[in-house]
Specification:
By secondary structure, this protein is α/β, with parallel strands linked by helices. 40% of the residues lie in helices and 20% in strands. Helix 8 links the parallel strand 7 and strand 8.
């Protein structure tokens, strides 16, 4: 297994700083909440609906926050409980929220994409999930093709879950694997044997699921190159079509007690952490996987790979997707909606969300209206995240803020992380591990207001 080149160690020491993951621009800490109003969000949502519904449809993200146990690495909005009586009231709130959205839309939505995230979506019973999805589908038409997927914890996912959601049109399954090393699993409180993952994968394939994704995480406490090698080799035996190989985000000042259950001394640091990624990447590529965007891999027969090849890969709050919709509506606690022209986030506490949704109040508590500058920079950052390059040949692709960002990139160009020529910015092979740094240079809001406290995880 190859080691890290000496120059890369120097670059990692230089550029391993806190930075956003850029699932949006502007990033959430830099939203201008003071100028935001729900009425203005509604106007942008109707505008995007009118511009995109007939052409491409809309996307729905549904956040199901409940988990039976706390995984100590987790950075998601979740509620830990073994009380399954919470399911029905929460579903009632989701359906009431959806009915409130429907009233503000000018026509019947054509849904292209549905993603169930969490939390643990399969915390909910198959019967309740069927009620939720069927009730939504009864109010919409479907675009073609559709992209319906859900996240699942292998420990709490049954064949009935898989069959029920397949009947509802779901063809993509994402399993949280993280690492198969028992020591790593124990310290992150996510014990799941290889046989459990293999069984769920086999059942999903037998039922007919077309694309299975595994979430792997590097940089976890007690994780070593040997455990990454063992994990990737086992994963390669099961051949999921997609793999998300995420960097562990250590943000205990945000996520609290869960991430305080181990010490920073238990975590690999700087170039040691990058070795974990390089180790996994090399094995994945040997197994036929191709690197897609940031921290993602796919087999050539998967739609995510094809989207990357033909230039249609898209990135949103759900991650990378082969389809693009201008309007994405988030349902559930803490969900974020995106009209391209604005963002809106729901209440982050379950009780506040349910109370407002049931009352027919749009449960939005903050958002951001994008300025002309934001829209230009957003597109360039999206291009970099999806295609590792961006261009500015048209007037609507240019802005003084972009020029300032390109000037900030001069040092990164000198370090061979990017090339800039002929109105084109390209990320080099050396620069790919530093994609977040490159986007940060274009982030005008971040540059105008550097945080006084740590907001983000380290970029490496």
């Amino acid at each position: 297994m190859r080691g890290m080149p000496a120059m890369n160690r120097t670059l990692i020491s230089k550029y391993n700083i806190p930075g956003p993951r850029y699932t949006s621009y502007p990033t959430v800490p830099y939203w201008d909440e003071a100028t935001f109003a729900v009425e203005q969000w509604d106007r942008t949502a109707r505008r995007s609906f009118s511009e995109g519904n007939a052409r491409e449809g809309i996307s729905l993200y549904i956040h199901l926050p409940y988990c039976e146990s706390l995984c100590t690495f987790c950075g998601c909005n979740k509620r830990v409980t073994k009380n399954h009586a919470v399911e029905q009231p929460y579903i009632d709130a989701l359906l009431k929220e959806w009915s409130t959205h429907l009233k503000s839309l000018p026509d019947t939505p054509r849904v292209r994409e549905i993603h169930l995230g969490g939390g643990t979506p399969t915390f909910f019973s198959p019967r309740n999930l069927k009620q939720l999805i069927r009730s939504i589908l009864e109010t919409v038409s479907l675009a073609s093709p559709t992209e319906f997927g859900f996240e699942a914890n292998p420990n709490y996912t049954t064949t009935e879950h898989l069959e029920t959601l397949y009947q509802m049109g779901f063809r993509r399954l994402s399993l949280g694997v993280q690492d198969f090393d028992p020591l790593v699993q124990k310290i992150i409180n996510r014990l799941q044997p290889f046989d459990t993952v293999a069984s769920i994968t086999e059942s999903a394939r037998t039922i007919g699921y077309q694309s299975i994704n595994y979430d792997l995480v590097y940089g976890l406490p007690l994780q070593k190159p040997s455990s990454v090698m063992d994990t990737v080799r086992k994963v390669s035996l099961l051949r999921p079509e997609r793999i998300a190989f995420y960097s562990y985000a250590h943000v205990p000042w945000i996520k609290g007690l869960g991430q305080r259950r181990f010490s920073e001394q238990d975590l690999p640091r700087d170039w040691e952490k990058r070795i974990l990624y390089e180790t996994g990447r090399e094995l994945l590529e040997q197994g036929g996987y191709q690197e897609i965007g940031m921290d993602h891999f796919a087999l050539p027969e998967d739609s995510l790979y094809r989207a990357a090849q033909n230039g249609t890969l898209h990135r949103n709050f759900m991650g990378y997707t082969p389809v693009h919709t201008q309007l994405s509506i988030g349902l559930g606690v803490s969900s974020i909606s995106d009209s391209w022209y604005a963002f809106a986030q729901n209440e982050k506490a379950v009780e506040a969300y349910v109370r407002q949704a049931i009352q027919g109040i749009v449960p939005i508590f903050r958002g951001h209206l994008l300025t002309d500058e934001d829209l230009v920079l957003r597109q360039h950052i999206l291009n970099l995240m999806c295609r590792f390059e961006t261009t500015w040949t048209r007037p609507d692709e240019q802005h003084p803020a972009l020029e300032a960002g390109l000037h900030r990139l001069k040092e990164l160009e000198a370090d061979d992380l990017v090339t800039i020529a002929n109105n084109r910015l390209t990320v080099t092979e050396v620069g790919r591990p530093f994609l977040r740094n490159i986007c940060m240079a274009l982030d005008a809001r971040l540059m105008r207001s550097q945080p006084h406290t740590q907001l983000f995880s380290q970029v490496i």
